[in-house]
Amino acid sequence: MTSHPSAEPAEPPPSYEAATAPQSSNSLRVRNGIPPAYRRSMEDEGRPLPSGWVRQYDPENDHQFFVDTTREPPRSIWHHPYDDDEYLATLDPTERQKIQGSLRVPSNADLAAESSEDDREHHPPTTQPLPPRPAPSNLARKMKDKLTGTTHEERQEQRRQRAIAEEQMYERHRQLRQAMVTAMRTGEPQH
Questions:
Q1: Cα distance between residue 181 and residue 166, in whole Å
Q2: pLDDT per residue over 26-38, tens digit each?
Q3: Which of 81, 98, 112, 157 has the most crowded Cβ, counting Cβ within 10 A?
């Protein structure tokens, strides 16, 4: 009879704040009302897991974490295994390259959703306002027009539509998380 490690880690991962703190204050920002950590969590929910890994949910931090059940004791982390250097280091180079090659590449819709310097009116600052910048040139806008094959006005409308869709997706994500907390508390499945 073979023994299988428990899917329950002996210890939770290190604190969520310490494990997910951005490397720089400019690297992550709230977009369409969705904090970066929640956006990443939403994206990670759709990513497949390597064999032997499971997702678990921590209601205290309102966040999923990942457990490697092949280790004794099981190892738990806050970020997806495909983003974990320790896990990736265990793979042969071909498999590692395959995983890294499967990472999502920004689409034209993603590029259009990001604002250029002259689009600042669509993304209010999330921290203290910066000093005024010089008036933007049309060069960035023209380059973006050519790159995306859309006009500034079309991108504005696309951003508005994407914001609505992302806000709806985030609300569904929050409802699912709340149902998970309720199910954990009551032991009853939530519909």
A1: 22
A2: 445 677 777 777 7
A3: 81
